[in-house]
Amino acid sequence: MGFNCGIVGMPNVGKSTLFNALTATAAAQAENFPFCTIEPNVGRVSVPDTRLHELAVMAGSAETIPAQLEFVDIAGLVKGASKGEGLGNQFLANIRQTDAIIHVLRCFEDGDIVHVDGDIDPLRDAETIETELLIADMDSLEKQIESIVRKAKGDKDAAAEHAFMVEIKVMLDDGKPARDVTLDTPEKQMWIKKFGLMTAKPILYVCNVSEDDAAEGNEWTAKVAEMAVAQGSQAVVICASIESEIAQLESDEEKDEFLESMGLEEAGLNRIIRAGYELLGLQTYFTCGPKEARAWTVKVGASAPEAAGVIHTDFQKGFIKAEVIAFSDYVGLGGENGAKDAGKMRQEGKEYVVQDGDVILFRFNV
């Protein structure tokens, strides 16, 4: 089960620098000119979670395997991208294939790094890209409406789907993103995915600031935060150049010392990864033993069989039961045996909804 976040933004806002730091590679070029990134770069990153290390120590695990989240570095969009300006069409297609959007906004001045619109205004940049996505979604949905309208005349389900399309089209025409539509039925939740609308994707704003503003942000980041709250989204402040330096340090001690010298409590990348995880509605459960302690990713609300299927489809098909220990009980009672002795290991069936931090052993028969 793969989940990914597409990193988007205007040219020269620090997207590729951020991507490089996230993946601790130089896979993406980071040059001072528009359209440097042409093909999307993809990287998988570990989701930071101190609980995994605690479980590994308690279980005497030989290996720890964290959960993974995928990031896609998508080239800079410009005004007119929905009509093919710049390299628009290709990159809009790349955005459609992602599960969520990480929108990087430039919130720093630097005379050596050009801005395609001549000056710094993150709210304008956010509106520019949102507008391009809205226009592209309007065109896409209009074509889908045309293709279903005839079928809707004699098919009740198609008629309902058509009505939902029209409802969203009205919203888009009013300048509202598809993510604002009410998804109050399973059918609507299914259809919205089927439509492939970019403005339906959840969005996280990342404010890229100078080193001096990394700890507290600035007037631009405050405005972005206000915008994000109004939209029901989130905003994170980072300095991509600092994150790039941190990513090149080898030991945790070096990273901690560097962060302390910059007045930072933790790397901004950790906040982005966690926010991306939350943005996608994900949570973590664990399996652990002498061989390995491992974090697994599931959607919030996933059932025990669905969680088992993340490990292997046979686990889901042959699911019998799940032996579950809450993380706090596992650690607080000295591991699996202590939790068992205290009566804190529960036998759960197919209806059990997995909770974040559950330590689970699946019993199955194929």
Describe the structure.
It is flat, with a radius of gyration of 23 Å. 43% of the residues lie in helices and 19% in strands. Helix 1 runs parallel beside helix 8. The protein starts with a strand and ends with a strand. The strands form three sheets. The protein has a six-stranded mixed beta sheet with strand order 2-4-1-5-6-7, with helices on both faces. The protein is α/β, with parallel strands linked by helices. It has 14 helices and twelve strands.
Beta content comes to 15-25%
Residues in helix, %: 40-55%
Biggest β-sheet strands, sense, barrel = 6 strands, mixed
| N→C terminal distance | 21 Å
Question: Could you spell the SSE succession in H and E letters?
Answer: EHEHEEHEHHHEHEHHHEEHHEHHEE
* Total helical elements: 14
Weakly predicted, low-confidence segments: 25-39, 84-88
Number of strands: 12
Helix-strand category? alpha/beta
Rg, rounded, reads: 23 Å
Average pLDDT value? Answer: 86
The gross shape turns out to be: flat
Q: What spatial order of strands do you see in the largest sheet?
A: 2-4-1-5-6-7
What's this model, at a glance?
The protein has 366 residues and is an alpha/beta fold. It contains 14 helices and twelve strands. The protein has a six-stranded mixed β-sheet, sandwiched between helices. Strands 3-9-8 form a three-stranded mixed β-sheet, with helices on both faces. A three-stranded antiparallel β-sheet has the order 11-10-12.
